[in-house]
Amino acid sequence: MRAEMTPREGLRCGLRERKKRRTHDALIRAALELCTQQGYDRTTIDEIAEAVDVSQRTFFRYFTTKEDVVFAVQEIVEARFVDALEARPAAEAPLEALRNAVLLAWDDLGQVIESIIPVELHMRTYQMIESTPALVAAHLRRSSELEELIATAIARREGLDVETDPRPRIVVAAFSGVMRLAGRLWGEAGECSVESIRATTEQHLDGIVPAIAGEWRKSAP
Amino acid sequence: MRAEMTPREGLRCGLRERKKRRTHDALIRAALELCTQQGYDRTTIDEIAEAVDVSQRTFFRYFTTKEDVVFAVQEIVEARFVDALEARPAAEAPLEALRNAVLLAWDDLGQVIESIIPVELHMRTYQMIESTPALVAAHLRRSSELEELIATAIARREGLDVETDPRPRIVVAAFSGVMRLAGRLWGEAGECSVESIRATTEQHLDGIVPAIAGEWRKSAP
DNA sequence: ACAATAATGTCAGCCACTGACAGTTGACAA
DNA sequence: TTGTCAACTGTCAGTGGCTGACATTATTGT
User: Fold this and answer.
1) Which segments within A66-157 are labelled E, that is strand?
2) Does the CB of A207 have a partner CB in chain B at under 8 Å?
3) In terms of pTM, does the model score above 0.90?
4) What is the dihedral of CA A207, A210, A214, A215, to 10 degrees?
5) Residues B105-154: pLDDT tens digits?
6) pLDDT in tens, A166-181
7) Which of residues 149-178 of B touch A (CB under 8 A)?
8) Which of A50, A154, B4, B123 is the most exposed place for a label (fewest CB within 10 A)?
9) Is the CB of B56 under 7 A from strand C?
């Protein structure tokens, strides 16, 4: 078995591949269900493995760490975002393109996720992540790797080189910081619909420019 | 023993306090020395404890996790930054105050650190952190907690409430993202002097406003 | 000098994670 | 269909981070 298991491509394959996918998805479901219910720390790998009726060792052949299984779905969402970004018209300014790509990604998020787990479970997962220190750390690290990807994409749009011109990384840093902030606030609020997080995101992204520009005392939020 | 151990205050105390400080600092030195030499993952707590001639259990009474000991010095630096920020004149705009505080903190960083470990070791530690996934994650999490503090301070300066007005968190998010970027670039470059990281930081901070404002194609970096 | 208190060591144990080896099962050709 | 190969899985033993419980040692205030 290979660790890659790039999400949506094991469709037209033999029995072996299908079985693998079943186990893979079942592990995700079991892990998320157990973790969101009783907490990440209070859930052991043995429990998850047992729920799917495989050995602990097998779990680790599908996911290299306990954290990995938690972010398996997130990974798909991120991939879609990157695609959306690359599809934005070249005329859009960097921050504008980022904004539009992320809003698009939220829009049809439901369909993609539902094929693996109930969207509602995914939303609960998101909140669990934000309230579990170890997962917050992992989430941040993953985000920072994603930032690198995005910065490269932005640089390509603008015909720049990420290594020599710091501006792509700077916008992306600001953008990501704000994205994370939006996610956190959404998690804290009781509301956990897709619409609600989309709205929060939009609102905060549109706040970047005025907030950075200064002049806070002259204009209301 | 209490977990606090707020760095510079066990000075005028009895033998017990002094001994505690000695062990505490010795553990930091041993840990950083060993980790920077042979790598974080390839260094066990037993090795560190043995180097200081205490039991593994005692290590964990001083530092709750293996990561903690790595960030012990960073913690002091951060505290100084927060102090510097709170001392900035109210006339400065948020981003301006952040910029000046961080540059000031870099300035007299040497003195503070040298009382615990050689500055050179601290610099090597910084680079080790950036090249160790687990530590990058921990570093990011710590930073995000610091962001919360800073955002509150900014809000206070501007007479705002962090909970209702998102702007303090937005600037801080942008600011922190850029700070981290500067740190990473500095770590990748061979140069590891305090001056060099200070210069990198300054340059990137001054790039925030133009990068966010857009109009990249009209002005050179 | 003597309790009271705090720091340390020892030990047993949980859990994430890994390597090695053996058993099982699906794929594919003869 | 059958037999072989390769992939997947289970078992087991072991490492390392981390914790609770309890006994031991050291410091402090009286």
Assistant:
1) none
2) yes
3) no
4) -120
5) 888 777 888 889 998 899 899 889 999 999 999 999 999 899 999 999 99
6) 788 878 888 888 888 7
7) 158, 160, 165-167, 169-174, 176-178
8) B4
9) yes
